[in-house]
Amino acid sequence: MERFGRFLNVVDVEATCWDGQPPPGQASEIIEIGLCVVDVESRSRVAKHRILVRPVRSVVSTFCTELTGLTQDEVDGGVEFREACALLEGEHRSRSRAWASWGDYDRKQFERQCSAGRVAYPFSSRHTNAKQAFTDCFGLRRKLGMSAALSHAGLPLEGRHHSGADDAWNIAALILKVMSHDARPGGAF
């Protein structure tokens, strides 16, 4: 049995996007959920996961493919959003683990999409805005994007930026950096 508070789910989503406004009748939808599991006790990244999600109210634009590397064919092979949420709950204990994301975009995107599709929100209420925690930890005047924060922390960007799985992995590295500066077990997380 998993001890409460031992693991933290770090989540990063990629969603359909356009260079400008969405085409008529389309709305931004999650197409990839990246997840990195952090063992708070050992202060290490222990797992990296990727869930591709098939959009139903939008298509992957050329701009989106250039940004994320994801194609329409790839996400067509993904699961429905409802199933992705069930995977988060069943395989990643998303309702019982604390979770973090870089900023509030990911949390809000899940809230919007769950509401629009009448899908149960898959996460616990214990969410940490890792961008804010990083800003506070290092006494910065402004919040940095993930890539700039990695540079500030002296950490490499691993993988492809705007890949949900790679970004979750990199955000987890930033969280571990924050934890190493905080004397409390688990720190802000």
Walk me through this protein's architecture.
The protein has 189 residues and is α/β, with parallel strands linked by helices. Helices cover 38% and strands 19% of the residues. It contains 7 helices and 5 strands. It has helices at residues 62-68, 72-76, 81-92, 105-117, 130-137, 146-153, 164-181, and strands at residues 7-15, 30-39, 44-52, 98-101, 127-129. Strands 3-2-1-4-5 form a 5-stranded mixed β-sheet, with helices on both faces. Helix 5 (130-137) runs parallel beside helix 7 and helix 6 (146-153) packs across helix 7. The mean pLDDT is 95.
Write the layout of secondary structure elements.
Layout: E1 7-15, E2 30-39, E3 44-52, H1 62-68, H2 72-76, H3 81-92, E4 98-101, H4 105-117, E5 127-129, H5 130-137, H6 146-153, H7 164-181
Parallel strand pairs: 1-4, 4-5
Antiparallel strand pairs: 1-2, 2-3
Helix pairs in contact: 5-7, 6-7
